[in-house]
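Record format v2
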Amino acid sequence: MIEVTEHTRNVLLDVAKKKKIYVEGSFLKLLKAPKGDKEFEEYLKVCKEKDITARRKRLEVTKQVQSQNKELEAAAKENDRINKQLSKSLEETERAMEDARNAEREAMIAKAEAEKLRDDAMEDLDTLQKRTQFELIGKIVKFALYIIAGVGILTTTLFGWTLMTGQENPILESTWSNLFGILLTNSFSIIGTIMGVKYATEGKGN
Amino acid sequence: MIDTLMLIDDENLFHLVFEDACSLLDMALSIEALDSSDEADKKFKEWFPDDPDHERPDCVFVDLNIIGSSFDGIEMIRKINYDYGDGVVIGIISSSQDEFEIEKAKKVGAQFWIIKSDDIEPRLEEFKEDYEGYKNKTAPFKIYK
């Protein structure tokens, strides 16, 4: 402890009276009033009270600032967390959009492939139908040709037989003549039709 | 009353709170507040080789996590106790109550653990009452909640 000299004591008291300046801080704890000096004891008491009041005020303010600081830090952390979450969500959305775009692209490719397959199938079916039709026509034509040839041969044979035997049969003659004419005409018509169909089918196939 | 007290804590606002609280409680004559363990380490290193008892504080309060420092509070206590002479009352002041960390602190020679909160004065007052026991190494490790 420091016991102040009379001169220092007087100066301190004078400064306190005239300028309202008091000793403060940790140094105050070291000062000791001379024995029996009530005035200086009172001065030191006032100094300590003022120091305690000032410190208490500062402590309260500091605590408030500290508390606000903590709240701000917590808010900043929360903001940071939300920002990170948003960034993550954004990334996920972008990824999902990219996935959707890829899926759309794949779907379009699949659609194009399906359309191509459908067209191929249609074409195959068309070809098959045409081939079937052509085969049917061929059979009909063959059958017709056999009939024509058969009737032709039969009437020709009958007509030849009447000629050889010297019999006159005007009905048979006219029948053979008419029939042969009709059959020849029709057979050329049928052959023409067949050739036309065949030509058209081959042209489309190419 | 403690003659010289040292606080090692990265939070400057807490320095003010601590200094004012100690002053109001008449706990220490002088307080030195440092904001990094490196700075404290440097000081102890300077004091130790020539005169282990010279200039060093009587009591040291160390924060557990000192942001911006090379090592934490527990390592600081270990260094002071094992590398620089073990001549001070030393403990942790932290908002953490981690059992694992408390055990680690005890192992390196921490004598107390003060939980940092808005209302620090009652804990410091309690500590002030126990201080002589820590100084004489008779008080057991204590957590001030």
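Residues 71 and 173 of chain A are 127 Å apart (CA to CA).
Helices of chain A lie at 6-19, 38-165, 170-205.
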